Write a sequence for this structure.
């Protein structure tokens, strides 16, 4: 039975990517060798890394002066690395707290210096994105999380600030058009719109680095990785390869402008049903709704078993909400086809009929 | 044409592992989902992680009191993490310098405290393992590298010390019988005897942790990862899975005692030919020769083209020596069949005949 995979991450990847990713394990580039048993310094893998890096630059439409590297450790390690690389030894930074991942980023940053939380939506269960806050003038950088997987909120307009703009885009990079050149540092775990778990994308403006006065450990130093073309040590070979395949797929689809249209249509379809169907209510503030993670609850939890049976029978997986929100979360990343969203909407309507 | 893959790492993996690893990308556990698109919190992947962790304990015959975790960042990040977790804020540590990887470990450790290098074979191009050095009594730990991929040397007897014993076993773990309970901390990048690049094995005695007085960043803190069963953040899912498959393969083969015998036979065959054939000379001191990486040079470099043509035509790949040693390096890790070593020996003998 075909599965409709709404997992929040690791999550759905395009079928054609999975096919190529499976083939490369047996025989990569007709070498009669597996991708995962060749040297990362071999011509064949160096090409993969360079292709992945240049696809990122192309798809994000980055001007000169930015470096792209593929690291390990996920956004969780970037919480630390971004601070290490940008926070001066006696410096300050400002953070926007929009949920679990922001909170974790703030916790790690505090180990290295003075952190100001400019605003937080914690008191409302993180169901909205704070606006109209002030960013102090004397901070080394301002950090925000573009999309909040757990709560289903997404920043639509990024704050203007004179300080450096740092953004954790783990769960919505490559999903919508933005002026990426407004950001000084972007990081993203691969396991949503870019590829499988195991690698982290870092996009950084070169001129901002090397100014903290810190003696940064080599593996945490962006400049070290950049100077070695993202090959300071053995990279996470397979995760980089599958990311490259996914970026190629996105390029062939028409890039971010094309996928953005599809993502908007998928989200519109699902949110419309949530708003129309009296058995459901959305979790996030309407104006802050994420195009990637659609969070919703039943208006009456006593019908949970009935609804769960319906979507289970439809082949839907991965829509259980995070324990801190409850209810449901349908993650509809780039690779999710409209067809699967329609299957979920059909299940919601079947549920309504069954109860009427 | 069949390839004989002598790459130093990432390197050869068992064919049956590659077959299963390829299948799992298309359909994992008959879920009709790819392994790399399911949640790392799903029952199916949690089982993979737990199986991998318990196979490590079983194969290394670890007593109670040890934890096994799968991290990211390779040995290069462990150079830093091991120091962070074991070196007291005002502490000292002792290191044995046996090559490039030891040197890198020492460099990162020095950022956190006072490091004594107890011995080094640098002056002899790292072609031997220093012995009879003294480890100071007042150090927090002693660190060594069990096998040196670049130079082809391997520690046969580990030093007795009253301080903690820390070992980078990236390139020979699971290849030979040792009393692993003598070590307090072992770390190893997966991409040699354990799996593909992208995950790092850490084996640590629980009681030694939490004693440095340092405020360790979460992602660098072994206790954080242990407390979350190696799932503090999204792990490198695919690399952990393929490592699990490789550990299962090793268990079915008869574990470390069985593979050790095969490894000794492969190394004996190749070193015998190097010593017999007047056209070759070994690089490493005989008593310190590695069973994993066999380094050798031509006695007369003018014949290089002739020999290179012969092994190329035999389907051999990955035996070019590291630039700091020159010549050749044949890496004969666990998954390398005797048949491939014989093909290399045949090529060496064909070379001899051709020149006679």
């Amino acid at each position: 039975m075909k599965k409709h995979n709404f997992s929040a991450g690791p999550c759905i990847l395009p079928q054609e990517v999975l096919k190529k990713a499976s083939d490369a394990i047996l025989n990569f580039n007709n070498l009669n060798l597996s991708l995962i048993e060749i040297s990362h310094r071999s011509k064949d893998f160096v090409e993969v890394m360079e292709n992945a890096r240049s696809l990122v630059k192309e798809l994000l439409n980055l001007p000169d002066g930015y470096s792209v590297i593929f690291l390990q450790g996920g956004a969780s390690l970037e919480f630390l690395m971004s601070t290490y690389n940008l926070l001066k030894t006696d410096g300050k930074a400002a953070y926007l707290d929009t949920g679990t991942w922001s909170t974790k980023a703030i916790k790690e940053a505090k180990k290295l210096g003075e952190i100001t939380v400019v605003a937080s939506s914690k008191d409302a269960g993180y169901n909205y994105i704070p606006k109209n806050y002030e960013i102090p003038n004397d901070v080394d950088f301002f950090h925000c999380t573009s999309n909040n997987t757990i709560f289903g909120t997404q920043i639509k307009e990024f704050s203007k600030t004179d300080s450096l703009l740092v953004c954790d885009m783990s769960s919505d990079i490559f999903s919508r058009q933005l002026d990426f050149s407004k950001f000084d540092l972007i990081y993203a775990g691969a396991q949503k719109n870019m590829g499988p778990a195991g690698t982290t994308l870092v996009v950084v403006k070169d001129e901002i680095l090397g100014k903290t006065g810190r003696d940064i450990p080599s593996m945490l130093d962006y400049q070290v990785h950049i100077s070695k073309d993202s090959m300071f040590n053995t990279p996470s070979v397979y995760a980089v390869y599958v990311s490259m395949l996914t970026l190629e797929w996105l390029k062939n689809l028409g890039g971010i402008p094309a996928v953005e249209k599809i993502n908007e249509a998928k989200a519109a379809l699902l949110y419309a049903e949530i708003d129309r169907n009296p058995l459901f209510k959305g979790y996030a503030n309407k104006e802050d709704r994420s195009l990637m993670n659609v969070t919703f609850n039943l208006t009456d939890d006593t019908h949970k078993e009935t609804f769960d049976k319906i979507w289970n029978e439809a082949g839907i997986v991965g829509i259980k909400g995070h324990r801190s929100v409850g209810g449901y979360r349908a993650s509809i990343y780039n690779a999710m086809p409209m067809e699967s969203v329609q299957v979920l909407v059909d299940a919601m309507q079947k549920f309504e009929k069954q109860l009427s």
Summary: The mean pLDDT of chain B is 97. The CA atoms of residues 125 and 325 of chain B lie 8 Å apart.
